[in-house]
Amino acid sequence: GLLEREELAQKIKSAKQNYFEDANKPGRWLSYKLRKERQCKKINHLINQQGQICYDSGEKKKIVREYYESLYYQKKVQEEEIQQYLQKANLPRIPKDVE
């Protein structure tokens, strides 16, 4: 699936970079700079909810998944609470003849 495609794309990118590295001297310098830049962008570790530092890629995936699950979690809101809020907000109403 998606993971296999990402791995294949990474292998192709790596093969292209290897070719680029061996091509010429300016290319080697540029590939060195690009490799350094790519290493700087990589996330080496994450801190879980218990405050422990995790280096394992499986653990990092779990931490990210849990973070986004909690970020986008929506609690159930009762309809009564919505009605009370709207009454307190005192919003203007659309006249019946306009509907």
From TrEMBL:
It comes from the Eukaryota. This is Uncharacterized protein. It comes from Micrurus lemniscatus lemniscatus.
